[in-house]
Amino acid sequence: MRKPERLRSQPVRSVDQAVELAEAEREMRFSQRVDALAEAMGSPADLSVRNLADGVAAVYLTTMVDAEGLREAVISPLSGVPAPRLAHIEQLMEFVTVGGITEPLSLNEAADGVAEGKVALVVEDRVNPYLIDVSTYVGRKVGAAATEPAVLGPHDAFNESLQENMALIRYRIRNRNLTFRRLVLGADTGTQVLVVYVKGKASEEMVDKVVRRLESADTPVVLDTAFLREYVTGHVWSPFPLAASTERPDRVCGEILQGRVAILCDSSPFALIVPAQFVMLLHASADSYDLPLQSLLLRLVRVIGWLVATMAPALYIVVSSFSPGILPPNAVMSIQAARQGVPYPPIIEVLIMDLALELLAEASVRLPANVGGAATVVGGLILGTAASEARLVSNVMIIVVAATAIGTFALPGYQNQMSWRLTKYLFTAAAALLGLTGLVSALLLVAIYLCSIDVLDTPYMSPLAPWRWTALAKDTLVRLPQPWTVRLERRQRQEEAKAKRNAG
Question: Which of the ends of the chain has fewer CB neighbours closer than 10 A, N or C?
């Protein structure tokens, strides 16, 4: 085909030559648009340009589109269709039956759409192409929860597909008040984020505050909901989780029906639930499926495990070094006899075994699943036995460390466990410095700090501080039967409405 410049250099001697010149110029403009779109994409290796007809071309990423959907929805119906019959979107919709057809306002917007997995349909004599959504999802299907397993209840879990995660929530809450607000965050990643809540349950003020904080998040990269945690909660250095992270859709549904807000992120299998509260983090997802008395027993066990995990090493230091009189004489004599031959004070003994415990816990996470459990168990047995026989630590210290590990792993949520593992060292240091007085002082400081935290204007220690007896009785330590829970919820709403009237 001759170039338009060559045609212009020659005089137009006939109507046929004029028509040829016009067609060449139009084809040149069309080719320039296709080349400009490919250049805006950076001409990656997986970019494909397919001519469907004269003046019609499809530009897409082969790794991001559904090949079957592309052939059935775009290539087959548009092959051989001339460009004038696709000049308007209404004409295009006569051939393409998929619902996701949009008209971008600029070439850059069209390039962003191609990067998201859409097909750009470049049509001659149109300034901007069409965008047709035939994107595909590359990743794992819906499976069982890996970090929050349960005996009873549903066994499905979120995956990395935002659409499938939305469907898992929709299947459980078939209510028109269920709302998804879509945001695009991260200048470099362009990640889709959803704010999920139920109108009438979550306050509009709290939802607006969450959306404003997300929109003002000055971060170029958003690869997971964890990248947004500090922006939403407003607390950067807090050692305690102020937003609960979960991969269970049933837990997300239960929390948003209680008036909380969930945040979903594309390519992330974990949802954030805000505002989180101290009592909520001691509850497990399976508690709702157990009988009330069974839930009471399990929660009591968790509370005991939490106390042991955080204060057992500190109490060992207090009894061994400062206040042996708080135990019966026989128990004190047993502890002192076990420490015979240990060459350093109890604080060093505690730090050695705590460090060994942290190493074993980290190794169990990093090792492959089929060898991790066996390796850590064998390593713990050998390490404990060797340390005891070498008189590096006492037998009582090994028992304390084992109890600490069991209590830590009984807590729900990996981040919740990490928070109290960190707090344990504060209690240990306070006990080593001032004994029982230091331990009690550290406990008071942590309690004061927890009571001072507000997450989205919600007290972190509620309903314990401030005291709300209806919420406390409904589902704190004891999970009441469902009929009683419904009555208490009505009473709670009446109390909240009365409090608002009095405040107004």
Answer: C
